[in-house]
Amino acid sequence: MADKKEGGIVKKGHEEGIKMAVSILEEFGLPLGLLPLEDVIEVGFVRSSGYMWIHQKKKVEHNFKMISKLVSYDSEITGYVSKKLIKKLKGVKAKELMLWPPVSEIIVDDTPTGKIHFKSLAGITKTFPVEAFAAGQ
What we know:
Elements: H1 2-5, E1 9-12, H2 14-27, E2 40-46, E3 51-56, E4 60-64, E5 69-82, E6 85-94, E7 103-108, E8 115-120, E9 125-129
Antiparallel strand pairs: 1-2, 2-3, 3-5, 4-5, 5-6, 6-7, 7-8, 8-9
Pfam families: DUF538
InterPro entries: At5g01610-like (IPR036758), DUF538 (IPR007493)
Protein name: DUF538 family protein
């Protein structure tokens, strides 16, 4: 794991970690409310590979009200970020009926569709309006 983090920028603590996570989402055209984090310990990003990691004190569940979707964020979240895309995502699950399939990829469409797609390893793809993941939702 340390090799993935080599050459990465690391921010420690909640305030600095949140600032960095939001700036990464902004830079790559992803909705700013996509990662509702609490008690962040560390956020890191390796620009050359796009590898990002987030450590928070405990698992967080967030209800995105606009789409009535409960999402679980583990204490450790990792993935590879590029323009309008997070792939090989680990640590995020969205509740589907009684199951919590892991979300493995998030893709934001180019405008004008305004859609965001969540893919799971189980082959489930869900599409929602990007506005549902705006900051403060």
